[in-house]
Amino acid sequence: MLIRIRPAQSITEIARIIKANSSGWIRKKGHKEFGWQAGYGVFSVSESNVPAVAKYIATQEQHHKKRSFQEEFVAFLKKNKIAYDERYIWN
């Protein structure tokens, strides 16, 4: 998901709203057991990289045939030297 936010907006509040609204919509579509994981990841993107990120999002179904989201996410964290503990990123 790629969104623009104002500096005064809280990431926590935005995540809460997105999760609540999308959960309700998905459940109304018949997926009664749907639920979000407890956490979320947020990364900033410079304005000059927005087109590349939008293209990546649009084609993720294709590249996830080669590498799972989980594999790609861990590779992203490693590439950007972001510390993580796998016990916590998939809950």
Summarize the structure in short.
The chain is mainly alpha-helical and 91 residues long. It contains 5 helices and no strands.
Describe, in plain words, how this protein is organized in 3D.
This protein has two domains: 10-42, no CATH class; 43-91, no CATH class. 51% of the residues lie in helices and 0% in strands. The chain is built from five helices and no strands. The chain has helices at residues 11-28, 50-58, 60-63, 69-79, 86-89. The longest helix has 18 residues, at 11-28.
Query: What is the radius of gyration computed over CA atoms, rounded to a whole number of angstroms?
Result: 15 Å
Q: Kindly estimate the percentage of residues that lie in beta strands according to DSSP.
A: under 5%
Report mean pLDDT, rounded to a whole number. 89
Pattern of helices and strands? HHHHH
- What's the oligomerization state? single chain
Distance linking N and C termini: 19 Å
Given the C-alpha coordinates, what overall shape results?
globular
Query: How many distinct folded domains?
Result: 2
* Largest sheet entry: none
The chain-level structural class is: mainly alpha
Low-confidence stretches: none
Count of discrete alpha- or pi-helical segments spanning 4 or more residues? 5
Percent helix range: 40-55%
Number of strands: 0
